[in-house]
């Protein structure tokens, strides 16, 4: 049974988010552009106060390097890195929950976490950041002798898997592993059982997802693997850990990916938790603590 904290969050999410189904693309566009204009995209000072934070230059959008603050200046820099791609439906910037999670991850792993503030739809599409993200990964890999994990939640999880698929087709450095938290793998949201899952989900709205997904695809097919990695090639992918709860609109597509993986050589560990919410591993609940332990064990 979900924890008391989980049940409380599930009950208040509809009131906090004030999200509803939409049938007007233009109204949603205005809503998201207004929200983006007001968003603060720099790391919250109090959240990152125990970390060293610097900005990585040369990508065309802000990228933050987050590391545990060293008590001894002679302590060597972290040897491993995490490239973390935040969720938000490709239309919202990271919030404090994301920043808190990556700080915790950095400290527990003793790792450098690289956190891009990538350009969002509807103004931008996947084409406006994927080439830069591939270059960023290669840059991080050169600087990380113990390897790079590619990781993301929700839309960022879909982005992370798409990035790993593209890297697998290229010569050069590869991620040591991938971690996907409630990933949005198919912007068409057409996996069997999606409508039923959405009726149990207090968080995500299918109409909003489908509009945002079409914006992210731009002029490209929404089933293009760069946009919907559920349809991409699984060959050559590194060991991957994926989390999803069953009270999540996205869990049918996560299960579909896990089913596809069983017929391949891809080493995918799928953790599906009954009755848990979208993105439960990054929420302030006991279930997230257990998920973090699983993640740390997976990353070794």
Overview of the molecule:
The protein is α/β, with parallel strands linked by helices and 300 residues long. It has a single domain (4-116, 123-238, 260-299), classed as 3-Layer(aba) Sandwich (Rossmann fold), CATH 3.40.50. It has 9 helices and 8 strands. An 8-stranded mixed sheet has the order 1-2-4-3-5-6-7-8, sandwiched between helices. A hairpin with a 6-residue loop joins β1 (51-56) and β2. The longest helix has 14 residues, at 4-17. The chain is globular, with a radius of gyration of 18 Å. The model has no long low-confidence stretch (mean pLDDT 95).
Topology, pairings included?
Elements: H1 4-17, H2 25-38, E1 51-56, E2 63-68, E3 81-85, H3 96-109, E4 112-116, H4 130-142, E5 148-153, H5 155-168, E6 177-181, H6 194-199, H7 206-217, E7 240-247, H8 251-261, E8 268-277, H9 286-299
Parallel strand pairs: 3-4, 3-5, 5-6, 6-7, 7-8
Antiparallel strand pairs: 1-2, 2-4
Counted up, domains total 1
Tally of DSSP helical segments? 9
Which structural category do the helix and sheet elements fall into?
Answer: alpha/beta
Largest sheet: 8 strands, mixed
Radius of gyration, in angstroms, nearest whole number: 18 Å
**CATH homology superfamily name:** Alpha/Beta hydrolase fold, catalytic domain
Q: In order across it, which strands form the biggest sheet?
A: 1-2-4-3-5-6-7-8
- Mean pLDDT over the full residue set: 95
Strand content: 15-25%
Kindly state the number of beta strands: 8
Low-confidence stretches: none
Secondary-structure element pattern, one letter each: HHEEEHEHEHEHHEHEH
- How does the overall form come out from the CA principal axes? globular
CATH class: Alpha Beta
Shape-level CATH architecture: 3-Layer(aba) Sandwich
CATH topology-level fold name: Rossmann fold
Distance between the first and last residues' Cα:
29 Å
